[in-house]
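A reminder from the course coordinator: this example appears on the midterm review sheet, so study it carefully.

Given structure:
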């Protein structure tokens, strides 16, 4: 899958990222989203905090050079987490799986954590194909659904040989 790559987010990407993150089907799948995905000012403020933050590795996912989504690694409460959002036009072709593989290869810290709504079977498959295993579940309010929903926490643990 050498046609998948990661590159830094550029100003010219912001409209595409905003539109991707407000797509109703994508918001429902992600569940744990912005309070109001249509609020451009809130999006601009959020992305404005992420991009310069040295603790956040935030990339555009490209497929054959074109925009296919975003992927990031960041630290919350001392845990390194990964998150990805693939544009709907790129679903079902292994883009997320390869993008996560690329990000994991750049992130030395283990464990790496990820969170996914239990109904998001595509994202669960992506995590498991990349070696993540379920470590816990909890129920929390999901703005993308407007109700509480179950979330699975996954971890990519250190290999037994220390790699």
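Designed residues:
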């Amino acid at each position: 899958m050498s046609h998948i790559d990661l590159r830094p987010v550029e100003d010219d990407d912001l409209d595409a990222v905003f539109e991707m993150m407000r797509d109703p089907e994508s918001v429902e799948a992600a569940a744990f989203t912005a309070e109001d995905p249509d609020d451009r000012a809130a999006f601009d403020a959020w992305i404005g905090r992420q991009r310069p933050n040295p603790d956040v590795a935030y990339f555009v996912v490209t497929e054959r050079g074109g925009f296919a989504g975003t992927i990031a690694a960041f630290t919350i409460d001392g845990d390194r987490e990964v998150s990805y959002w693939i544009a709907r036009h790129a679903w079902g072709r292994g883009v997320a799986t390869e993008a996560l593989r690329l990000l994991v290869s750049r992130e030395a810290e283990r464990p790496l954590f990820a969170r996914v709504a239990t109904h998001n079977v595509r994202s669960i498959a992506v995590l498991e194909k990349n070696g993540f295993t379920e470590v816990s579940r909890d129920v929390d309010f999901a703005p993308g659904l407007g109700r509480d929903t179950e979330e699975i926490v996954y971890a990519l643990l250190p290999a037994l040989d220390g790699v």
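The radius of gyration is 15 Å. The longest helix spans residues 95-106.
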